[in-house]
Amino acid sequence: MQCIRTFTASCSHYPSSTVFIFDIQRFNQEKTEEATPKRREEARKKGQVAKSVELGSALCLLAAFFALKLTGPYIYEQLTGYMQFLFSRFTTEDMTITSAYRFFLDLVLVFLKTVLPIMLVILAVSLTVNFLQVGFTFSLEPLMPQLSRINPAAGLQRLFSKRALVELVKSLLKVAIVSYFIYQFIIEETLNVAYLSRLDLRDAFSAIAALTLDLAFRIGAVILVLAILDYYYQWWEHNQNLKMTKQEVKEEFKQTEGNPQIKGKIKERQRALAMRRMMQEVPKADVVVTNPTHFAIALLYEKAMTAPMVIAKGQDFMAEKIKLIAKENGVAVVENKPLARALYDSVEIGETVPPELYQAVAEVLAYVYRLKKRLS
């Protein structure tokens, strides 16, 4: 049932009949609570983690150009060496299947020598960035087919959703910022580009490579800054999506810890069973030491025991019940206030009497044994 509270406000600005209605149930459905560890773990198992794809792309781009700068001379030597070999042999040898096969293998080998180091660097950086963002997680749930993905209505809703609008704004902003930096770079290097016409081919190629790497590093740095901002946005959006309502927190607590009412019933039943088993042990006792009304402790001693054992104890109502069962089964009831209080406070059910109480308990048992012998 929906819970609605109303109150009437009377003042100079509002008529006395004005009634404000607050829908308490509506406030309960607002996601105002931070996600619990269980909620986060469930989202992680589904592959829902705070991750920025742009951060990995930016770092991979910078790593690729950095590796290219370090291996540039090596790549240049490999390519020029292969081109010299190719053109020197290509014009002198007859083109056969064997020679074409050898040329192809040499080309593949040069390609691996030049490209493979850069690819390995990109792979290592990509794996490292992903691990630092989300840790080690593996989930096939995002790959599972879902009917909602082929639903045209759901597709249109995603297309015109808030997230799609944010992604569009981010893309346009990134294009605008990167274009601005490229424009500034072109303005700065206009004179240097014009100077390239005076250089020979080798020096011009080196100058163009240096300009290209400089531009790449600048663009990469700009994209990296935007990617870091995007990561913090993804983290904030992820936390917002995982927030819970107060009712969801209560339901999760019930599922995790159990319904308090059910747990209370279980504990009550467990106490009742334990009490019943304790009362069943009272007839086996040798003596029940009382306070006389507040405490009652049932003691049992057999030859195999190192010391007398407390097999039942109780206070007030339970003490009366223990005494009643003891009298019905012919168990001696002895009043000893200090001993009864000491046994109740220091010994739990199933434990033996501590050494400091041996003397007092031995006197009570000796009295009980003499009494039983006299009666028999």
UniProtKB/TrEMBL annotation:
Pfam family of the protein (one): Bac_export_2
Transmembrane segments: 55-76, 115-140, 168-187, 207-233
Subcellular localization: Cell membrane
Gene Ontology terms: biological process: bacterial-type flagellum assembly; protein secretion
Keyword Transferase: no
Gene3D superfamilies (UniProt xref): 6.10.250.2080, secretion proteins EscU
InterPro entries: FlhB, T3SS_substrate_exporter, T3SS_substrate_exporter_C
Gene Ontology CC annotations of this record: plasma membrane
Membrane association type: Multi-pass membrane protein
Keywords from the named record: Bacterial flagellum biogenesis, Bacterial flagellum protein export, Cell membrane, Cell projection, Cilium, Flagellum, Membrane, Protein transport, Transmembrane, Transmembrane helix, Transport
Keyword Membrane: yes
Family of the protein in this entry: Belongs to the type III secretion exporter family.
NCBIfam families from the UniProt entry: flhB
Function noted in UniProt: Required for formation of the rod structure in the basal body of the flagellar apparatus. Together with FliI and FliH, may constitute the export apparatus of flagellin.
Protein's UniProt name: Flagellar biosynthetic protein FlhB
Native source species: Sporolituus thermophilus DSM 23256
Gene name of the record: flhB
